[in-house]
Amino acid sequence: MAIRDTSAQDRLIERKPSTRKRALWIGGGVAALILIALIVPTARRMLSTDASVSASRISVATVERGPFVRDIAAEGRVVAAVSPTMYATSPGAVTLKANAGDTVKQGQVLAVIDSPELTNKLLQEQSNADALQVDYERAQIEARKQRLELQKAHDNAAIDAKTAQTDLERNQKAFANGASLNFDVKAKKLAWQRQQLLVKDLQRQVDDLNVRSPVNGQVGQLFIAPRATVAKDAQLLTVIDLSALEVEVKVPESFARDLAVGMSADITGNGGNWKGAVSAISPEVVDGQVSARVRFVGAKPEHLRQNQRLSVRIVLDQRQDVLTVARGSFVDESGGNYAYVVKDGIATKTPIRVGASSIDKVEILQGLKEGDRIVISGTDAFNGAQRVAISD
To answer: d(Cα 384, Cα 381) in Å, to the nearest integer?
Structure first.
């Protein structure tokens, strides 16, 4: 008789998960679904772009519509509008009569040139002029004397005309020939007048040996040492006219082409604010900049000094209702032909056309609309890609 075992009695009992574990599983599934929902679009965008750049490497600005002021702001220095340089009119030793910084009046002697050669020449020609004057006056006296004698002979001959007709005719001819005396007197007069002109010119040259200030102002730079011997036309010194001041500014070459004489300007500094106008523009470009002069309009400002620093703002253009965006390197990098428009984390290369530029804004003529966000700097990292993903 077989003995029965307990195998028939053994039964596997299925263990059901607890409510807490079931909740964890459900929560994990939901989180996974959410993660997938977030990752898939991002992955899709990443796969549809040509490159990816961190947002920290770029700057983004919004296209706006409003007033547009195109101006130039620069630091300038006060210069004299009139600053004549004195030159030596003749060679010789120079004695300075003023020092640098001295205040001088118009006509004041600033330097004296010692030129013995020119002074002696003046004395010689003056002596010749005196001699010619004596000859001229002697000729006048002699001519008057001869005319009186001829007149007397003519009158006597006329009294005896009936008995001395021949003598009358002879004396009449002699009286008529007396006219030649006038020519002799005139010739001597002209010679004397010519000599007077020569003396006058030499006197002017001698007077110019006293170098005088052409304006009221201040002695600027001295080009020679005291008692120096100089050649003709050598620089001696400069005089600064402090009544006519201007401000010299350096303007970037990119803006200089739009500058024009007469444009209005605002000048500030030294606790003052003045109106000005562009008075001159240099035709030469030096180190990428162009020099321009701005004159004060109206009353001359007080207490300004040569080389004093002032701020200048020149208004080139001013308009309303203009589509603009903050200025950035994208203009130079793209030549103003395209910009990267940012939307949903993707920067898309978009053709545009830009207009005028100011210090901080660029005019948009075509390709963008108000509210668009574009990359204004950092596009060099895009390497010209058509679409670039912007990552956090």
So the answer is: 8
Domain locations in the chain? 50-66+320-391, 72-81+241-319, 87-114+209-240, 116-206
63, 325 in Cβ contact below 8 A? yes
Angle at 293 between CA 288 and CA 296, to 5 degrees: 150
* CA nearest neighbour of 320 among 69, 62, 71, 72: 69
pLDDT per position in the chain (392 positions), as tens? 445 555 555 555 555 555 666 666 666 666 665 655 455 555 555 555 677 888 888 899 999 999 998 888 888 998 888 778 888 888 888 888 888 878 888 888 888 888 878 777 777 778 787 777 777 777 777 767 776 776 666 666 666 655 555 665 666 665 555 556 566 777 777 877 887 887 788 788 778 888 888 888 888 888 888 888 888 888 888 888 877 889 999 988 877 778 889 888 999 987 888 999 999 988 888 888 899 999 998 877 777 777 889 999 988 888 899 999 998 888 887 778 899 999 988 989 999 999 888 778 899 999 999 999 999 988 888 888 889 888 87
CA pair distance 295, 212, nearest whole angstrom: 27
What is the fold, at CATH topology level, of the domain defined by 87-114+209-240? OB fold (Dihydrolipoamide Acetyltransferase, E2P) (2.40.50)
- Following DSSP, what letter does each residue of 282-342 receive, concatenated? EEEEETTEEEEEEEEPSSPPSS--TT-EEEEEEEEEEEEEEEEEE--THHHHHTTSEEEEE
Question: pTM of the prediction?
Answer: 0.47
- How do strand 387-391 and strand 51-54 relate by DSSP bridges? parallel
- 72-81+241-319 adopts what CATH topology? Elongation Factor Tu (Ef-tu); domain 3 (2.40.30)
50-66+320-391 under CATH 2.40.128.630, yes or no:
no
